[in-house]
Amino acid sequence: MFWLETSALVWRTKSILSSLHEMKQMTLEGFEIQFEKLILHHFIFSPTRTQSYFEVDVVRWDLSPLTTFQVSGQWKNFVDYYFEQYGIKIKDMSQPLLITKMKHRNINQSYEIYHCQDPFIASSSENLVVHIPELCYLSGLRMESKHDDGLSREIKKYVNLSPKEIMATMNNLLDRINGSKACQELFQEWDVKLHSAFLFLQSRVLAGPKLIFNSSTSLDFGIKETFLNAQTDFMKLAGSTPVYSAVLFHHSILVCSTEDETLAKVFKDVFTTEARKLGVAYPGVHLDVKIVLVKNNHEKALDENFVTAIRKAGQTQLLVVIIPRRSDGNVYRSVKKLCLLELGIPSQAIRAKSIECKGHVGIIQKVTLQINCKLGGALWSLDTNSLETEAIMTVGIDTYHDRMKRNDSVFAAVFTLNSECTKYYTRTVFQAVGQETGDGLVTLFTDALFEFYKVSFIVAN
Fold first, then answer.
1. End-to-end distance of the chain based on CA atoms, in angstroms?
2. Other C-beta atoms lying within 10 Å of the C-beta of residue 130
3. Is 300 helix (H, G, I), strand (E, B) or coil?
4. 276, HSE (Cβ side, Cα atoms, 13 Å)
5. Tens of pLDDT along 167-183?
6. Which of 45, 75, 242, 359 is 20 to 30 Å from 399 by CA-CA measure?
7. By the 8 A CB rule, do 366 and 410 touch?
């Protein structure tokens, strides 16, 4: 069996050396620090490598392409090596070298590990790979590109493929392999033949769930022929019918910069309207949305100004923050950290440009539904009678790893506490760096089963 899957990586077309030259021109002093912030612990791509991408661990400013290393018993510099090996002429002789420390799981793979005369590289007990910035490209999007909605939509066309598009991609690959003379000769040596058709497997199909929005509205996913239609109807019902349950919600604080005051008033009007229409706010209960303006104090960073304003705003049930256009992400991180670790209140962030766009009503409507869940309400419930079983506990688990490999990994699990899937219990456990399987899973399951019994007065089966 030949197992295939589609994947997509975003590579920049500008070389890393070009980015370095731009930084030199913009900041004559301290450009090295700015360059290291851009490149360290980020993934790069080099056309001359057998591996797709590498993570940069060190930038060596004291080394250059003229640095010599030993290969096949001879000492060569990188300029001569790349010309003899790949026919590539390196132009900039003063550029630094980028170092990757190969992980233990990759040590046995065939990479070009250079043995330089440099004491750091020669004495290292780790396998190191050296890269030339002129021949490498960064992966991922720049900060300003991430906020480009048009670019994001184009990228999604290649990343979020439909099942038919995935099959077409697989067929194209199989045709290329079967049409390659070199591949066929290799298959003959192995006495292997690659079929061009997919292998279809029959599997057991369970009935889909029935979602209950309120006493008068429900949606059945159980009929196979209408499943796609049900998905479309789900989005319509979620935004047009009252939520399944809500909490007594009467006060919130809306924080924004002074330049976004007009957008804050737009958000307040649409939010209060949608909250009443969707049942997030109780009928007859006044919903107070207090707007707090953050003045631009140039003596402090933008995120510090937001944190100071929130601390002075007073107590509330919910904090909503409009992220300014000029924010680099620090405002979001600082506000979330403050609300979660210090204040202990639910928070909701929305970008200023999202309120400016034509479809801002729909966006604010979805935000309103998110807020209802964060306050402790539920948008819908699951009809477990349609699944022919009782006391179901649904469990989701995942592990987070620090990309820089400095901090412990975090194992997280979330459990439903009732058959209707409207209440949840979640826990996190710190474990060894890079560890995937959770050691504390048994303990978490035991605690979750007790919590399930406390809420539902029945043992989950």
1. 36
2. 21
3. coil
4. 11
5. 888 888 888 888 899 88
6. 45
7. no
- 44 forms bridges with which residues in the sheet? 54, 138
| 417-420 contacts, C-beta under 8 A, 24 or more apart | 417/393, 417/448, 417/451, 417/452, 417/455, 417/456, 418/452, 418/455, 418/456, 419/382, 419/384, 419/390, 419/391, 419/392, 419/456, 420/212, 420/378, 420/381, 420/382, 420/384
CA–CA dist 214, 218 (Å, integer)? 7
| Residue listed under structure tokens 């990757």 | 100
pLDDT at 120: 44
Q: Is the pLDDT of residue 289 over 70?
A: yes
Spatial CA neighbour of 100 closest among 77, 69, 131, 137: 131
350-377 burial by CB neighbour count: b if 16+ within 10 A, else e? bbbebbeeeebeebbbebbbebbeebeb
d(CA 95, CA 134): 8
392 to each of 308, 439, 444, how far by Cα in Å? 45, 24, 17
Amino acid at position 350, single letter: I
363-412 pLDDT, tens digit per residue, is 999 999 999 999 999 988 887 665 556 778 889 999 988 766 667 889 99
pLDDT of residue 2: 66
Instruction: Quickly count helices (H) and strands (E) in the chain.
Output: 15, 20
| Structure token pair of residue 154 | 């184009």
**pTM for this entry:** 0.66
What is the number of other CB atoms lying within 10 angstroms of the CB of residue 135? 22
Structure tokens at 354: 């999202």
User: Per-residue pLDDT for 232 more than 70?
Assistant: no
